[in-house]
Design goal:
Layout: E1 3-9, H1 10-29, E2 40-46, E3 67-70, H2 78-90, H3 108-112, H4 124-131, H5 135-150, E4 169-174, H6 180-193, H7 201-209
Parallel strand pairs: 1-2, 1-4, 2-3
Helix pairs in contact: 1-6, 1-7, 4-6
Length: 212
């Protein structure tokens, strides 16, 4: 077994992540291991304030032992987010709004009515704008996950003979690439890690439990 950091981006990525964690827990129980080790970190990043659940009877990623990061906040709106970003850029010496070109929605009126506490409505431009103010939080969340993987007791109940730990962490990003947060989260995560793997779910689960 190796160390993995799996990032589920958006609704589809989160659903796949929960299914994978549930299956891994079942596989580990057959090996006499009671819980997922910290050497495997699971992070779901999406817009809705509360994390998704399901498919039933699976709960949220937090219920399964993972981490959830929302790109929104209670009472938030797209208009508030856009105004805050414009104020940040306007406060710079050059007052240059060029960084938002190609990022902000062309139809701001339509974007303003999207209930972003529940999601970005599969609008990439809305997801991108919601991601920008929270890039540092995203990076710190991933760094915290990496720190847990590096702890002396990260492997938990996994027997030593089953570990294949050479200090390297394998990052995997899961997302449909259709929605806003999925597109921007995966782009940001790839930039942070520099590479990623693309695997089907059965192959992904199998790669976790492979023995040396």
């Amino acid at each position: 077994m190796r160390k993995f950091l799996v990032i589920g981006c958006g609704g589809s990525g989160g659903t796949t992540l929960r299914l994978m964690m549930d299956q891994l827990q079942a596989d580990l129980r057959t090996m006499g291991i009671s819980s997922l080790p910290d050497a495997w970190q699971f992070v779901h990043v999406d817009v809705p304030v509360p994390p998704d659940t399901g498919p039933a009877p699976i709960g949220t990623i937090r219920d399964l032992g993972g981490t959830y990061l929302s790109f929104s906040a209670p009472g938030n709106s797209y208009q508030n987010t856009a105004q805050n970003l414009e104020a940040m850029l306007g406060g710079r010496a050059d007052s240059n709004f060029a960084p938002l070109l190609g990022w902000a929605p062309k139809d701001s009126a339509a974007a303003n009515i999207i209930p972003i506490t529940h999601g970005a409505g599969q609008y990439r431009s809305v997801g991108r704008m919601l991601t920008l103010p929270r890039l540092r939080k995203l990076v710190s969340t991933l760094e915290d996950a990496q720190a847990r993987m590096s702890a002396p007791d990260a492997w938990g109940d996994v027997p030593i003979h089953m570990r294949r730990d050479h200090g390297a962490v394998i990052p995997i990003i899961i997302g449909s690439m259709a929605g806003g947060s999925e597109h921007r989260c995966s782009s940001t995560s790839r930039a942070w890690w520099g590479h990623f793997r693309a695997l089907t779910l059965p192959k992904l689960v199998q790669s976790f439990t492979q023995r040396p």
